[in-house]
Structure formats: structure tokens, C-alpha cells
């Protein structure tokens, strides 16, 4: 993820904290990328230490670029159909996924 993308995502989440839900299982990857870019809890309360280890299995074997691209497409589609809903699906097996980041809510 490029710094400019990170700035845009942080600004969006500052305006609308629950928007993180639109990333579904990819939120945890996005969260790590924002931290990697140097953003902290001072920039965005979302960036605490809470993670959902269940999602790791969906990241394995995929490059950061692939995960980033998939995350960005997923959030646009989710926002169009289920704006800020905590219910989404796991695109690799169509299972229901309920997101809750304890750093946020």
C-alpha cells in the first residue's frame, strides 16, 4: 500500500469509524498495512492491537499486492450493498463473516 492510499483510508475512517466493516476479512490486512506505513492509534483509534486470527488462513499464499487489490475491491462492493454492516462473507468460500474490531467498538 502506498502512503497516499493510507492517508485516504485513515481520513475516511476518521470521518466514519464504522466504515472499517466494509473491508470484511481484509480489514486485518489493511490495519496492518496502515501500521506498516507509520500510522498509529494517535492517528486513528482503530490501530490498536486487536486482531482476528481466524482470517490469517485467507491471507496465506497471497502477496501483499493481491490482498490490497482484493481488499479495495471488496470494500467498494460491500459499501454499495451492505454499507457498514458487520455481516459480510468470505469470498474464498462464501461463508458468513461477522466483523468486530474491539479497538473500534
Describe this structure in words.
- The structure is a single chain.
- This protein is mainly alpha-helical.
- The protein has one domain (3-98).
- The chain is 44% helix and 8% strand.
- It has four helices and two strands.
- The chain has a two-stranded antiparallel ribbon with strand order 1-2.
- A hairpin with a 4-residue loop joins β1 and β2 (95-98).
- The mean pLDDT is 93.
What would you call the quaternary organization? single chain
Radius of gyration: 13 Å
In angstroms, what separates the terminal alpha carbons? 25 Å
Major β-sheet profile: 2 strands, antiparallel
Tell me the domain tally: 1
Q: What is the global morphology?
A: globular
Give the neighbour order of strands across the main sheet. 1-2
Q: Care to count the β-strands?
A: 2
Approximate helicity band: 40-55%
Structural class: mainly alpha
| Unreliable stretches covering 5 or more consecutive residues | none
**Number of helical elements:** 4
Mean pLDDT: 93
SSE succession:
HHHHEE
Give keywords.
105 residues, 4 helices, 2 strands, 44% helix, two-stranded antiparallel sheet, mainly alpha
How is the topology of this model organized?
Elements (H helix, E strand, L loop, with lengths): L2 H13 L11 H10 L19 H4 L4 H19 L4 E4 L4 E4 L7
Antiparallel strand pairs: 1-2
Quick rundown:
The protein has 105 residues and is mostly helical. The chain is built from 4 helices and 2 strands.
Amino acid at each position: 500500500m502506498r502512503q497516499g492510499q493510507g492517508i485516504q483510508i485513515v481520513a475516511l475512517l476518521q470521518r466514519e469509524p464504522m466504515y472499517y466493516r466494509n473491508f470484511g476479512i481484509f480489514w486485518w490486512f489493511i490495519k496492518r498495512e496502515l501500521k506498516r506505513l507509520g500510522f498509529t492509534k494517535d492517528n486513528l483509534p482503530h490501530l490498536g492491537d486487536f486482531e482476528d486470527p481466524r482470517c490469517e488462513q485467507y491471507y496465506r499464499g497471497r502477496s501483499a499486492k493481491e490482498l490490497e487489490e482484493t481488499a479495495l475491491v471488496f470494500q467498494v462492493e460491500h459499501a454499495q450493498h451492505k454499507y457498514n454492516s458487520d455481516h459480510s462473507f468470505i469470498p474464498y468460500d462464501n461463508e458468513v463473516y461477522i466483523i468486530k474490531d474491539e479497538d473500534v467498538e
